[in-house]
Every structure is written in structure tokens, then in C-alpha cells.
């Protein structure tokens, strides 16, 4: 359920000319959910919003002959909660399908306009949001529902409202590590960043076996190096080491996670002087767990760049030769030009200046 809160390093890595695509923080850990929920009742009916009409029902005067409605049993509440989660999952899956299909159609010149797609998505999510609001209004002490609703809000970009739900959940369940992780993700976006460091550490203290906590923590330390230097009283190289240590622990817990391995390897681009051998080892490990040819060729791009910088030109060219997917054509061509310039600097120096029309901005 908890899908949001990613910090992107795309601008940093694209500026270096070394990233086939954006690098993102991994998915948040899910809120605890019973492994075997009780049998579910009938399908969830549309829930009213928490606006005035719904609140007004609490003010209705009951006649003396009508007994007060018995409070729902714990089992019934959990059944309703899991139906709500299922409704959320179904909406997310359907919207994901719409987005993928629209991207495919757009590539053929037949996709929906973004405004129309956005409105269609809003209408699909609207009843789910109202159902969450209604459930939490009736069960305000249900911490897991607040965590799930916060994730739903985060998917809609409503981080401030999500933060409010998570902070309320934390007062209800202060030992839930996922709440600390998810709040830390928001603090990483909105600040204060140093609070994010504290909350990731708390999540790990409560559950030291969750890979994603180390991954998120490592990425936040890496991105906000200045804050990390001040908070931990470290120099920049030591901050890099701290981020790499967190990533290493994440990989131990989830060794086949390709995005995680890519994050670890990409960290080396910002470290100066370049730790070439360590970087190559990291990319070699990433290559071993690539799931398809697109991922493998993306790794070849990175290996070529590291070896080019390290002066291993023939090996760099061999990696570039293995890249054939059109997705990487621009990066491949750019690296090829850089490789020529590094391998044959004299020819580049003696070359006549380009015509004005050929100069790049």
C-alpha cells in the first residue's frame, strides 16, 4: 500500500551524463497486515464523506423505544478495514493500467490528453478517499487505517495531509516502524531533514530486518550531505561512507533488488576522487541481478563510463558495443564522443573549430 515518498536524484545523475533514467528511493514498507484476515463480508458499499451531512447523523435524536446500535465488533471492524484496503488496491491497479495504456497509445499518437486522464483518475480515487474518511471518522483510533490513508494521500501528492494522518497514527501506535519510515520520507521532502535521519534510525531500531528502511536512510544521507555532515559531525567522505554502509546493509537483506543495487552503484559518481574499483565492483554486482536486456544494457552504459574515466578505453568501447537498444542511443553516442576525446586528446585539440551553425549551446 505504501508507495510514495520517493526522492529523485535524476537531476544530479543526468547532469553527470551517467544515468539511463531517474534514480528513486525505494518503496516504503507496508503497514502490518494480518497474514490470515477473517472471512470478508459483502462488497464495500459507497461510504459518505465526512462533511456536514455525515456529521449531522450523530445529532439525530433517538426515540426511547429504539435501542442504541451496538458497537461493531473488533472482527467486523477489521473485515471492513481489509475491504477498504482491497478497494484501494483495486483502484491503484486500475489507474496504473490506465497510465500504462495511455503511454502506449500516446507513443502511437492516440493517447488521452493529460488533463482528461488526470480527471478520470481523480474520479476513480474519489470514492476510495471518501471511504477512508468515513472509516477513520467512525474508528479514529485505528492506526493502520490512518497509515494506509496517508499512503493513499501521498499517491495523490497531498503530503501535508498524509503527514497529519501519520503523526496521529504515531500517537496511537508508537512502536510501528513503518510509520517512522513514512514520516521520515515526508521530512526528507518537506523538512526538517535532520528529523528524517532520526526517524529512519528509529524505524531500523524497531525493525532491523527491513531492507527498505536502510535504503531510504542511505539515499537521504547521500542527497542531503551537508545536513548529514552537520548532524553527525562528519566530513563529506565520511558521509559517503555512512550512506554506502546503509546501502550495504540493505543489500544484505535484499540481495536481488536491482533498483537498490543501482542506487548503491550510482552513489560513486559523486565521490571525488572516484573510487573506480569500488564503483566497478558495484556495477558488476548490479549486472548479475539485472532482470532483462534493458537493465543489462543500462549497466553497460555505466560500466563504460567508469572505465572511460579510469583510462580503460578498450574495455569501455566493448561495453558500448554491447548496447543496441534505441533507448540508450543518445547516451551511447555522447559517451562515444567523450571516449574519443579522452583517448585521442591531440586530435581533438588540432581539429578545426566548428562552423557557427554546428556549435552546441
Summarize this entry quickly.
The protein has 361 residues and is an all-alpha fold. The chain has 17 helices and no strands. The N terminus and C terminus are likely disordered.
Cα-to-Cα separation, first versus last residue: 45 Å
CATH topology (fold) name of the largest domain: Serine Threonine Protein Phosphatase 5, Tetratricopeptide repeat
Structural class: mainly alpha
Number of strands: 0
Helix content: 55-70%
Please state the overall shape, judged from the principal axes of the Cα atoms: globular
Q: What are the key terms here?
A:
single chain; 361 residues; Serine Threonine Protein Phosphatase 5, Tetratricopeptide repeat; 3 domains; 17 helices; disordered N terminus
Provide an overview of this structure.
The protein is an all-alpha fold. It folds into three domains: 76-174, Serine Threonine Protein Phosphatase 5, Tetratricopeptide repeat (Alpha Horseshoe), CATH 1.25.40; 182-254, Serine Threonine Protein Phosphatase 5, Tetratricopeptide repeat; 261-344, Serine Threonine Protein Phosphatase 5, Tetratricopeptide repeat (Alpha Horseshoe). It has helices at residues 10-16, 52-56, 74-107, 114-138, 143-155, 159-172, 177-190, 193-206, 211-223, 225-232, 236-253, 258-266, 276-288, 293-309, 313-321, 329-343, 345-350. The chain is globular and about 80 Å long.
Amino acid at each position: 500500500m505504501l508507495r510514495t515518498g520517493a526522492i529523485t536524484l535524476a537531476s544530479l545523475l543526468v547532469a553527470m551524463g551517467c544515468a539511463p533514467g531517474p534514480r528513486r528511493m525505494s518503496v516504503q514498507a507496508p503497514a502490518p497486515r494480518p497474514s490470515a484476515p477473517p472471512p470478508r463480508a459483502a462488497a464495500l458499499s459507497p461510504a459518505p464523506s465526512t462533511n456536514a451531512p455525515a456529521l449531522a447523523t450523530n445529532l439525530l435524536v433517538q426515540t426511547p423505544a429504539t435501542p442504541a446500535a451496538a458497537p461493531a465488533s473488533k472482527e467486523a471492524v477489521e473485515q471492513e478495514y481489509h475491504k477498504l484496503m482491497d478497494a484501494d488496491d483495486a483502484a491503484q491497479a486500475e489507474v496504473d493500467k490506465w497510465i500504462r495504456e495511455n503511454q502506449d497509445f500516446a507513443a502511437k499518437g492516440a493517447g488521452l490528453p493529460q488533463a482528461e486522464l488526470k480527471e478520470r483518475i481523480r474520479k476513480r480515487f474519489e470514492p476510495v478517499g471518501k471511504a477512508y474518511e468515513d472509516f477513520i471518522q467512525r474508528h479514529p483510533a485505528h492506526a493502520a487505517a490512518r497509515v494506509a490513508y496517508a499512503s493513499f494521500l501521498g499517491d495523490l501528492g497531498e503530503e501535508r495531509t498524509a503527514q497529519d494522518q501519520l503523526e496521529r497514527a504515531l500517537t496511537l501506535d508508537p512502536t510501528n516502524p513503518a510509520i517512522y519510515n513514512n514520516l521520515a520520507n515526508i521530512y526528507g521532502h518537506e523538512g526538517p531533514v535532520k528529523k528524517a535521519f532520526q526517524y529512519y534510525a528509529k524505524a531500523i531500531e524497531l525493525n532491523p530486518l527491513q531492507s527498505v528502511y536502510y535504503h531510504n536512510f542511505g539515499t537521504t544521507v547521500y542527497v542531503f550531505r551537508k545536513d548529514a555532515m552537520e548532524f553527525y559531525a562528519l566530513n563529506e567522505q565520511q558521509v559517503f561512507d555512512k550512506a554506502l554502509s546503509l546501502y550495504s546493509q540493505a543489500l544484505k537483506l535484499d540481495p536481488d533488488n536491482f533498483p537498490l543495487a543501482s542506487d548503491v552503484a550510482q552513489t560513486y559518481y559523486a565521490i571525488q576522487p572516484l573510487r573506480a574499483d569500488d564503483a566497478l565492483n558495484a556495477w558488476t554486482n548490479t549486472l548479475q541481478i539485472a532482470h532483462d536486456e534493458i537493465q543489462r544494457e543500462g549497466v553497460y552504459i555505466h560500466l563504460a563510463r567508469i572505465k572511460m574515466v579510469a583510462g580503460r578505453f578498450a574495455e569501455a568501447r566493448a561495453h558500448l558495443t554491447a548496447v543496441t537498444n534505441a533507448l540508450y542511443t543518445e547516451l551511447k553516442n555522447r559517451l562515444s564522443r567523450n571516449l574519443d576525446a579522452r583517448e585521442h586528446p591531440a586530435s581533438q585539440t588540432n581539429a578545426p573549430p566548428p562552423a557557427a551553425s554546428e556549435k552546441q549551446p
